[in-house]
Amino acid sequence: MSITTDPFRIHSRMTRVLHAATALAIVWQLGLSLLMVPPDDAPVLGAPMILHEYGGAISLVVLVLFWLNAMTRRTGTSLRALLPWGSPARLAALWADLKAHLGALVHLRAPTHQADTGLASAVHGAGLLLMTAMAASGLLWWQGPASLTETAIELHVLCGNLVWAYLIGHALMGLFNHVRKDTSLGQMWSFGPRKELN
């Protein structure tokens, strides 16, 4: 079986479950970050900080499972499409797709929605890399050597801020595509069976 781009059967149930688990884990972590008191400012770690530390470890496990799924799945977006940086052909497709989107926006038109385009795939891959870096740097700060804690927390905070932007943009694009009827939120978040591949 080869990778498919049919939007009605592009993602396996496992991919959809891992996507939902990643979304929930990241929203949980970002929400807790708003309630936390930095360890330097508190004599005892509060519940939000402790939940954030353990939640971060769980988030990293979910992300590792997502990466393993992306490397081994037989349907859906290929790992090469998620990470097009090493392929001149994929970079050219990404650039062409980006120019088409910018051209549509310049003319105040919405770009045509396609789930399997170079831009959509690369954005998903960048988000996955960003969230993995955020979770890994948090774990390094929490459990790593003392000599790396300052660098790890700086990277973690930077990634966290970028993940906020990514999450907001990702959610808004989902709502935008739902309102335009390109696809529905029900279809995006469905865990039901998909059509079988021939």
TrEMBL record:
This is Cytochrome b/b6 domain-containing protein. It is found in: Cell membrane. Keywords: Cell membrane, Membrane, Transmembrane, Transmembrane helix. One of its GO terms (cellular component) is plasma membrane. Its main location: membrane. The keyword Protein biosynthesis does not apply. It is a multi-pass membrane protein. It comes from the Bacteria. GO terms for molecular function: electron transfer activity. One of its GO terms (biological process) is respiratory electron transport chain. The chain crosses the membrane at residues 17-37, 49-70, 119-142, 162-179. Gene3D superfamilies: Transmembrane di-heme cytochromes, Chain C. InterPro entries: Cyt_b561_bac/Ni-Hgenase (IPR011577), Di-haem_cyt_TM (IPR016174). Residues 11-190 form the Cytochrome b561 bacterial/Ni-hydrogenase domain. The keyword Transcription regulation does not apply.
